[in-house]
Amino acid sequence: MADVEPSFAREYVPPPPGLEPVPGDPAPGDVLFLNGGLVHGSGPNRGADRFRRSFIGHYMGRSARHIGAHHRTLTMSGARVRLPESAGPGPCGTESAPHGPH
After folding, report:
1. Which of 9, 31, 53, 95 is most enclosed, with most CB atoms within 10 A?
2. Cβ contact 36:58 at 8 Å
3. For the whole model, what pTM was predicted?
């Protein structure tokens, strides 16, 4: 279980056996790009205005044949692509009922 004092999440995901966490040290205003399979998190935001923004984008090849039901699939030009729903997609984490993809 995660430390609920500094964290909004209550789940802790341990690193796989043989791996250790690697801390990052971004400066205010930095932009981070993370692989979707990367387990990640952060401590509390202690900045003067205590505000963070996030933008989540999922990218996949045109060869994809299925996708999770919550994703609105578009081409890079913005055209809608309809794909059959994949088996097994779900929310990130298990502590609350899903309301969308994240």
Report:
1. 9
2. yes
3. 0.51
Cα separation of 73 and 55, whole Å? 16
Distance CA 54, CA 41 (A): 13
Residue that the structure tokens 């043989």 belong to: 18
Give CA separation, 48 vs 13, 45, 51, in Å.
29, 9, 8
8: amino acid identity, one letter: F
Q: Which residue has the tokens 């935001």?
A: 45
Residue 52's identity, in one-letter code, is: R
User: pLDDT tens digits, residue range 72-101?
Assistant: 888 889 999 989 988 865 656 565 555 555
Tell me 74's DSSP state: B
